[in-house]
Amino acid sequence: MRATCDGLVIREYPYGENDKIITVLTADEGKILMTAKGARSMRSKASVICRLFTYANIEYYKKGGRRWLSGGSVNDSFFGLNSDMQGFALASYIVQLAAEITGEGVPCPEILRMTLNTLYAIETKLKPYGQIKSAYEIFAANVSGFAPDIWQCDDCGCESSESDWWLDVMNDRIICGDCHSKKSQGLPVPPTDELMTQNILLPMDNNAVAAWRYVTEASLKRIFAFGISDSESMGYLERASEAYIVNHLERSFDTLDFYHTVKE
Ligand SMILES: [Zn+2]
After folding, report:
1. What's the confidence (pLDDT) of residue 42?
2. 176 CA distance to ligand 1 middle (Å)
3. Cα 240 from chain centroid?
4. CB 3.0–4.6 Å: which of 3, 20, 96, 193 could bond 39 by disulfide?
């Protein structure tokens, strides 16, 4: 049976002598695997479609319980991502995250749309990379069902704080600076317990909390449209959103390590 689908290549790896297996993110069926014969040959038409970050209309057929790519046309290759190492590293991390938060056979139109928008934002340098990265991480936490309660202090219920905030990663909540210092009775609470299972407290300021709230409520079209001019606040947001998603997904990402390596 022949069929077509619009999909984004989020993973590619060599298979056999000259073939490739690709993971394609689609709106209707989530992640799907496809085998592309001859895709590693430069002369093959499939080679153009089977590149990481390519968004294409893909033609395939099913045989022997597998999907075989037979052709297609490229909608967007995001070719500009190859011109900047840091952008490439970030895009690689974004699609690895996308693969992690989607399932095979589970429709994910919103995640596909957000992932495409994010690749576009990186390619065009729409916003600083750290801001794009945080927006995607917060989005990923929200669609995966483990968003923190970012709206008020979990202890006293205050919505705005004059003494900054702490993001309590493992308990999905924020605590205002006042409650945190009352609890610790003036003694410094270690920001992370040794096993990192109960206690990962990350400092946040009002700007960082406001940005997190904005991303949580924004439509996909407007999700990057916030501004943090203060680099310290941006640093809080970047560290907090990264620690949040990584700890909740309980895994590390080689692409994220790569991003940090090329960032320095
Ligand atoms: Zn409080």
Report:
1. 80
2. 4
3. 14
4. 20
Residues 12, 50: contact at Cβ < 8 Å?
yes
CATH of the domain at 250: 1.20.1440.120
Query: What is the domain range of residue 185?
Result: 83-264
Q: What residue type is assigned to position 186 of the chain?
A: G
> Alpha-carbon distance 259 to 73, whole Å?
30
pLDDT per residue as tens digits for the range 46-62: 889 999 999 999 999 99
Q: What is the CATH number of the domain that holds 17?
A: 2.40.50.140
pLDDT band at 255 (very low <50, low <70, confident <90, very high): very high
**Ligand 1 geometric centre to CA of 202 (Å):** 15
Q: Residue 160: its pLDDT value, please?
A: 87
159 alpha carbon to ligand 1 midpoint, in Å? Answer: 9
240 C-alpha to ligand 1 centroid (Å): 19
Question: 235: which 2 tokens?
Answer: 């640093």
**Cβ contact 31:102 at 8 Å:** yes
- Distance from the alpha carbon of residue 152 to the mean position of ligand 1, in angstroms: 8
Determine the distance separating the centroid of ligand 1 and the alpha carbon of 167, expressed in angstroms: 12
Ligand 1 centroid–CA 168 distance in Å is 12
Domain count, the chain: 2
CA of 172 to the centre of ligand 1 (A): 15
pTM of the model: 0.94
Q: Are residues 139 and 253 in the same domain?
A: yes
